[in-house]
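anyone else get weird line breaks when pasting these?? whatever heres mine. first is seq + tokens for prot A
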Amino acid sequence: MTVYFSRGEVARLFHVSPATVARWTRQGKLPYTLTLGGRRRYPQAKILALLQEVERDPGVEQSGRAG
């Protein structure tokens, strides 16, 4: 079973605003799935892998890596 994050949870992980997460999503930079109600949910495993990638390269701003 896949576990998902909400937009707010992703924002907290990356230390950005929920609006930034929405922008990254529109730009195709974050993987997501839509719920039946039309809300975006972000697969936990893929988001955590992306976060680790950002943390491994501290010389790159988060927005430059994920967005």
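and prot B, same format (seq, then tokens)
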Amino acid sequence: TYSEDGKTLSERLKIHYDNAIQRDNPKDYMYNRVVLVMDTESLYASNHVIHGKLRRQARFVEVFGSPECHNEESAKCEYYISKGKIPIEELDELPPYHPDCECEVIYYFNEK
């Protein structure tokens, strides 16, 4: 689950299914929504695996994102991008911070 909304994958897909059946072309809408949710969920899971392996060795992290991601509704992108390089302990939450988030975490093993 995303740490912000606490919904499971099934709960997210159910919301999109309910919206899809009200559309003129529900199959295309649902396909696009499922792809978006699955891409975001996959990135969320892989980021946590990578972070779990590297947090024992890395000392600093920096979050980078594209301008499109930076202007999204989620203020978390802007917050973490604006912090620059920070000690790894200060990164409380990993991207993705919202669906279709383009933020990436860069790990540093020393100050340089």
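btw re prot B: The first strand starts at residue 60 and ends at 64. Strands lie at 60-64, 86-87, 104-108.
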